[in-house]
Amino acid sequence: MKDFLDYFGASKYKMNKGYSTEWVAKKIKWSDEEEAIGILKMWAHSSRAEECTKEKLNELNGMTDDEVLMALKMLEEPPILRKIGDKQLNV
Fold it and tell me: pLDDT tens across 50-61, in order?
């Protein structure tokens, strides 16, 4: 299997932009648990910060690389809520 850096199209001498989805994925993979949760909280939308727990980190570590990128992109977006009987979407 390819090296994690090579999988995202980077090498030891070519770095991804800071705070891109790929960068965050690499940082949470290489960091210890507390630091990785902090990175997730900084990455996540402010209303989703409480979702960044040890369980979420374990879930991300069990996913494939493409699934991790999708999950991180979803975590970055605000949740869409809709009240019962309300026609307006509240973000």
Answer: 989 999 999 998
d(CA 44, CA 47): 8
8 Å CB contact between 58 and 52: no
Query: How does DSSP assign 30-83, residue by residue?
Result: HS-HHHHHHHHHHHS-GGGGGG-SHHHHHHHHTS-HHHHHHHHHHHHSPPPB--
- Based on C-alpha coordinates, what's the Rg of the chain? 15
Would you list the domain boundaries of the chain?
Answer: 4-76
Model pTM above 0.85: no
Distance CA 29, CA 34 (A): 12
